[in-house]
Structure prediction request, 64 residues.
Amino acid sequence: MQFYNLKTRSHIDVPESEVRKTKMVRKTKSGEQVRYALTANYGGSKLYKFVNEAAYKASGAREV
Prediction:
């Protein structure tokens, strides 16, 4: 899976076995906001890739 590393400003291919998925929920004035992300630790950097709900559910990665 391809991630973008902000520190090196380059795209990095991360093996599927290294990818985890996480769901971030925060409260706002009008309710709750849910963000879905795929994360990976690669080369000493924590990488995030925000995705929509359909891609989150279709991903075979383990949930954190």
Notes: The mean pLDDT is 95.
